[in-house]
Specification:
37% helix; binds zinc ion; TIM Barrel; 10 helices; 7-stranded parallel β-sheet; 272 residues; globular; alpha/beta; two-stranded antiparallel ribbon
Length: 272
C-alpha cells in the first residue's frame, strides 16, 4: 500500500512538472537592491559597504551633479574622480540630478562610465526662477487639483527630457496632502506618468522611506509593462532597508523581470 502511494505521488509530481513551465517552478529571486543611497557624515562609503554586507542588499550610491547649492559634481573631472573612487568598493555608481538640463555640464563619454541615473520630480522650477522643494515638511498646497496638474506635467518633463533610468521617489506627495493620495493621484494622472515612463524605459523607484508609490500605482504601472527599482533616499543606516519594497513586491506580484538592474559592474557584491 505504501509503495502504491509513493508511485502515485511520483507520477503526480512528474505530471505537475510537465504542465508548469520551468520559469514558474523556479522563479528568479527578486534582486535585493537599494539604488538611492547618499554618502554623508553619518554614512561613509566604508559604513555603507558594511551595511550592504550585513543586510545582504546591493547598494547603489548617488550624488547630485550640475550647478546647485548642494551639487558637488560640477564637471567631467569631478565626475570621473567620483566614479573612480566608488569603483574601489562593491557598490553601483549613480547620479541623482536635481535640476533640468544637468547633462549640459558633462560629456557623453564621462556619463557613459556611470551605472545608472535617477531623478525625482520633487524640486520643481517655478515661473519666477525659484525652485519649489515639495519634499520639505512645511510645503503648503492650496488647491490639490491645480498642484497635481503642475506636478504631473513636471514628472513627465523629467521622464521625457533628462535621460534617466529611474524616477526616484515616484508618486510622492507633499506631507500636507499625503492623506489625500487617492484624490490627488487619480487613475488618469497615474496613467499619464506611467505611459511616459514606459515610452522612455524609465523605472519607478519604490521608496521604503516615503512608502511610495502606493499599491494602485504599482499595479497600474506593472500592467502597462513598467519596471521598478528599490530605494531609500538615505544618508544613514536606513540604507538597504527594503520593508515597504518587499511588501509591494508581494502584494503586486512583482517578479525579477519587473525590476530594473543597473549596467553590469564588476565590483558588485555578487561577483566578489
Ligand atoms: Zn536622494
Amino acid at each position: 500500500m505504501k509503495q502504491l502511494f509513493q508511485l502515485v505521488f511520483m507520477l503526480a509530481l512528474l505530471l505537475v512538472r510537465a504542465i508548469i513551465p520551468a520559469h514558474a517552478q523556479n522563479p528568479q529571486p527578486i534582486p535585493k537592491m537599494d539604488l538611492h543611497v547618499h554618502q554623508a557624515p553619518g554614512l561613509t562609503i566604508e559604513q555603507a559597504v558594511l551595511l550592504s554586507k550585513e543586510k545582504g542588499v546591493q547598494l547603489g550610491i548617488v550624488e547630485h551633479p550640475g550647478i546647485c547649492p548642494y551639487c558637488p559634481i560640477e564637471n567631467d573631472s569631478l565626475l570621473t574622480a567620483y566614479i573612480s573612487k566608488l569603483r574601489q568598493y562593491p557598490v553601483y555608481a549613480g547620479l541623482q540630478p536635481v535640476t533640468p538640463g544637468w547633462r549640459q555640464y558633462f560629456s557623453q563619454e564621462a556619463l557613459d562610465q556611470l551605472d545608472y541615473v535617477i531623478m525625482d520630480a520633487l524640486e520643481i522650477p517655478q515661473a519666477d526662477g525659484s525652485i519649489w522643494r515639495i519634499w520639505q515638511d512645511d510645503t503648503q498646497v492650496s488647491d490639490i487639483d491645480d498642484f497635481m496638474e503642475m506636478y504631473v506635467t513636471y514628472n513627465i518633463q523629467v521622464i521625457d527630457n533628462e535621460g534617466i533610468n529611474v524616477l526616484a521617489n515616484a508618486a510622492f506627495l507633499p506631507k500636507c496632502i499625503a492623506n489625500d493620495y487617492r484624490k490627488a493621484w487619480t487613475k488618469e494622472r497615474m496613467q499619464k506618468v506611467i505611459d511616459a515612463a514606459v515610452k522612455h524605459h524609465v523605472a519607478f523607484e519604490i521608496n521604503s522611506f516615503y512608502r511610495v508609490p502606493k499599491k494602485e500605482f504599482i499595479q497600474l504601472a506593472k500592467a502597462a509593462g513598467a519596471k521598478f527599482s528599490f530605494g531609500t533616499d538615505s544618508r544613514n543606516n536606513f540604507a538597504g532597508t527594503m520593508d515597504y519594497a518587499l511588501e509591494m513586491v508581494k502584494e503586486c506580484h512583482l517578479e525579477a523581470k519587473d525590476i530594473f538592474v543597473p549596467k553590469d559592474n564588476k565590483n558588485t557584491l555578487s561577483s566578489e
